[in-house]
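Q: Could you write out the predicted structure for this multi-component system? I'm mainly interested in how the pieces pack against one another.
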Amino acid sequence: MPPPNHPITTDLKPAPGVAIWANPIVQRCRRARLRPHHLLTYGILGLSVITFVFLSTYLGAIGRFEATPQVAAKATLLPLLIMQGIALMGLGTAALASGIARERDRALLDYQRMTPMSPTAKIVGYLFGLPSREYLLFALTLPYLAFALYQAEIPIWKIAKYYGVFFSSVWVYHLTGLCAGIVSKKPWQASVISLGSVVGLYLVLPQLSFAGLAFFDFLTVRPTFFNVIAEELNQQDRPWNAEQWMTQYGAVPFFTANINPTVFSLAIQGFALASLFTVIHRKWVDPHRHPFSKPQGLAFQVGIVVVLVGTLWPTLSDPQQVQALQRRLGALTPSNVMGWLLGLYIVVAGLTTLGVAHLLTPRQPTARQGFRRALRQGRRDIPAIWDAAPALRWVAALFTVTLLGYVALLTVVIPNFVHTDETWASIPWLWFAAPMLILGPACFFVHALAERYSVRVMLLVLFGLWVIPMMVSVVFYIAAPTRSNDTPSEFTGGSNEKVVAPGKSNLVPALWIASPSPVIPGTLALLTLTQETGEPIQDWQSLLRDPLRKQVPWMIAAHVILYAGLGLWLQLRRRAWAKRWHAQERALFEAIPHEPPTLGRPPQPSNPPQSSPGSVEPGNESVEPSRHPTG
Amino acid sequence: MPGDPVLLTDDVRVDYGDTTAVAGLSFSLGAGEVMGLIGPNGAGKTSTIRVLATLLEPTYGRVEIGGHDPATHPRQARAILGYMPDLAPVHDDVTCVEFLDSFAGAYGLRGKHRKARVDECLDLVSLTAKRKAMAGSLSRGMTQRLVLAKTLLHRPAVMLLDEPASGLDPLARAELRDLLNDLSSRGVTVLISSHILAELSGFCTVVGIMERGRLKRFGRLDELTAELRKRRVIDLELLDGDTDLPQLAAWLMEHDRCENVQLQQPAHRIRLDLLGNDRDAAGLLRSLIERGVPVTGFAERKPDIEDLLRDSGATEVS
């Protein structure tokens, strides 16, 4: 073996993040995924399919329908755009998720973590490197697309607008795949999660836009397509129901402003990109970090609430929009629409509040590690923004943000929907406050549970308290015999068909059984609110008439007491333990002098003062910390 | 210890949930030191190496690599670090030269210098002939060598090698030893975790023995082994078939200068602890010959890392 030339180098400058073409990760992925045999295989397959679709559409239009070249070119646009979407959004996202998960699974990511490139440069490298083949497939469509756009005489600014949003949307999905790959345990799980996310974001969540919550749709390219491209297509080539969608995706009402859909799409996708990038960056730097820091989690919640309120605000403040939504939903009264929209806000904002609260809450081992680290750094306690710091005040802040959003919505709802004699006392405050009264203690309880127990235990407890009672309740309810003299035993539920409901003899006890789940008192509160504020509708009112209606406040009160009590009990126990344990750790730390190490002498035998049995709970530490000087 | 420490840990602790993997770990190494980190399975060796490699944030404790704290200056620390993990993986779908070229770029090597360094490192690990082979098609030993080449690319000042010789054939092991000796002579600090103790004895200057997360013994190899020399271990080799070994062992056990007599039957050898000086050793040999014992070898065994490990009480070596 020849002697190595080894002048130690310390002045090398690693590759920058922005120069994608020079990024070593992009170069490696490109080499690996675009070898000549790959190019040949994917090139032939891709070109064949694209050529087939293009020619059959274009020549078919000219030959069979005697269309002009311009009309025929327009007919090819939609298939080409769909193929581009499948290649980059579907296949590209899966390639990213499985590729990064595979590298993480085989510890190859450690090599990359150890290089002196910045985390941003590494993320950018994977973002553009792993879907190389999919970018190739996309590139194969470009000559056909260029021909079609030229023939169809579509203005260049429209194309620029569309592709601006298209790529922004693609990167949202790609970062979702990267995120799934970094957090999931196996490569196949990452692929499933990422493809599930694509389907969910494209097909499921946009359905909420019909129900009044439009912003999910703007994570896709669809609004921009219908706003910019659809009108350029031939009438017969437009997607189903295109005219309605083109109207719907006009200017986006947000608070009191009307925003251009392209700008709104870019803003929403920018928010999603920033959130996903934050998570990936943090996990890249240290896989044990929380996905969000505490301020980042709060900022995320503020962003979600602003978008939610901003989207719901114009609908709730404009009677014409309420009527339109009422028709779309098949709702009976404007009050039903109000109840529905408030319900949407509570569900989405409530879920993000609970989710972010869970993400920000440190588990007990993390809290212990944080305290030890803080002590070593000469601090009395853990700084509030550390992952390991107690998160109660942050959870309170999250809930406050959600509450403020709700209050903001009420400032529009109360003047527009409440049919009262215009006195404050006549406003049904309890029912307006009820959803937040339910959400607040639930957040507090979930936080206290997460702080004390593992994810598995937490999920099990939540399943036991929130899901199982509903199952028991359903069994209890349907097991009762239908009694014809229980009136009414049928209700319309807003449709023309009569729906036969089982007898209601045991409805109240069944609902009491299910009441530990926030869904039941929450739904009942909203139904009561709808009923209190709107004109009485016989069938809906009958569902909530006495004796059930009298029970709802008690259910809410019981819910509040249950979760506030459980949360308080868990908090007090944790605090008592933390106080005891902190005092012990502090005493242990202060009792022992500390000197820096030197080479040449073995460490002194360590006999640290032992913690008293049970001082670490529920920890089962194999080794107690040593504070003895070494060397 | 000449100069400032290149690698320093001060009271490092690593926790995984409720389990403490490393506690109170403090040591420092100067330029050109080669440290062998040994200990049983679960002793905390890999956690220690991952902390030093900036891949794992310790619960607390100070780490310095070339004077840089990885917590505050990770880039500077990483620029002078080379790390080779146990069962080192490679990207299957690139050639050896592409694999190295990618990392050379990541470390900031450019242009002709990059290509030359990749070739040089392939040559160092004797993989030039395999430069165009797919990394996934290499044997285990060749994969190890390729990763070693990657580790050397940016000429690190500190090398962390976790079981570097596993999978290497004897010739490659000898080459690795020569290479590490050479790097050490050029001022590179090397930390090796290995279960092949004989291979560590050849070139380690410093030894750390870990057990249950603690650095049980740490110091220069010569100083630590000198402590063991107060008790002399004698290997007695006898002519095959001409000796009644059990009878001889019984006689030795009754000898006032012999202790801990171990019969190594198939090899026709007896190992014993001799209490005394050279004169006592000569007296014992004379007594054996006078008794007509066919002695073919009488040698004092120098204590090595294995003896250190045994002396420290560790039972299982990983």
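A: Regarding packing and overall arrangement: Residues 170-185 of chain B form the longest helix (16 residues).
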